[in-house]
Amino acid sequence: MTHFASRLIAGARRMGPLCVGIDPHPGRVPELFGGDTPDGLAAWGEAVVEATSGRACVVKPQVGLFERHGPDGLRALQRVCDASKAAGLMVITDAKRGDIGTTAKGYAAAYLSQDAPFYSDAVTVNPYMGMDTLEPFLEQAEANGKGVVVLARTSNPGSADFQAKDLEGAPLYARVVEALAPAIERLKGPDGWSSLMLVAGATGPDEARKLRALAPDALFLVPGYGAQGGGAADALAGFADVDGRLEGGVVNASRSVTFPDGSAAAGDKTAWRALIEAAIDAAQADLSAHARLGAATPA
């Protein structure tokens, strides 16, 4: 299997930096697909995958919104992951796992092993129990050409409660990234980008720029664009200038592209899909325009 970072950056260069988040929020899945049931989540997620194929290179299913339905919800997640793989899409599974020892090994195997039950190209992890909790994920990533996405500066309003606290002269998120330097180097690929990604929220563009200075070779996963209020310029703030184009990760959009205006009232699946495709195309065009240096004026 080729290097995760190489696959992701090639896909972003080809199609644009949009990552489509598959977040089946309670009460939001249209009755056209079965509503808020495990089968409804699976059918809706598969339809989102079909609409995304050819428009973006990567999707990000949110595990918790499937897991709330118990075993049947996890089977729905499997269906969405398998459909994404079949469609040629990369999958960043948003699980935010973080634990020690054999527990961490179990989580890593579930998402990143060769025969993982939840097919994933990468998985999100929480580093705040220490670097040893990341080692099983790094091992699986090395062995199987996968990626590890580490929380650094997230997009939620409460992120500053801990992540921005001063720790010996620098914010905690910066100290975390400094500690990740050996792992970033360890997972670096032939294109110079590392398969250790950092979460850098679009709601903190200044922090994203600081993260880029600290970790010039790490790809970024950027949440917070769209419904959470982050614009394209803010979302791309931590990207690097590569041959006149901003590059260095992917920008996630979930609600703005999977629940656009009018989609809940769509009369049939054809009308629904047209709205989803238009929303994905608009987000991709917005991000791609801002990524072309000199082609767009940052807000």
Shape, per Cα inertia axes: globular
Note the total helix count.
12
Order of helices and strands: HEHEHHEHEHEEEHHEHEHEEEHH
> Please, what is the oligomeric state?
single chain
Total strand segments:
12
Spatial sequence of strands, sheet with the most strands: 1-2-3-4-5-8-9-12
Percentage of residues assigned to helices:
40-55%
Q: What proportion of the residues form beta strands (DSSP E)?
A: 15-25%
Unreliable segments (pLDDT under 50, ≥5 consecutive)? none
How would a textbook summarize the main sheet?
Answer: 8 strands, parallel, barrel
The separation of the N and C termini measures: 40 Å
Q: State the secondary-structure class.
A: alpha/beta
Overall mean confidence score, pLDDT: 93
Gyration radius over CA: 18 Å
Describe this structure as you would to a colleague.
It is a single chain. The chain has helices spanning 4-15, 38-52, 63-67, 70-86, 101-112, 135-144, 172-179, 181-186, 205-214, 232-235, 255-258, 269-291; strands spanning 18-22, 58-61, 90-97, 122-125, 147-153, 166-167, 170-171, 194-200, 218-222, 240-242, 245-247, 249-253. It is α/β, with parallel strands linked by helices and 299 residues long. The strands form 3 sheets. Strands 1-2-3-4-5-8-9-12 form an 8-stranded parallel barrel, surrounded by 8 helices. Strands 6-7 form a two-stranded antiparallel sheet. It has a two-stranded antiparallel sheet with strand order 10-11. Strand 3 (90-97), helix 5 and strand 4 form a beta-alpha-beta unit. Helix 2 (38-52) runs parallel beside helix 4 (70-86), helix 2 packs across helix 12 (269-291) and helix 5 runs parallel beside helix 6. It is globular, with a radius of gyration of 18 Å. It starts with a helix and ends in an 8-residue tail after the last helix. The model has no long low-confidence stretch (mean pLDDT 93).
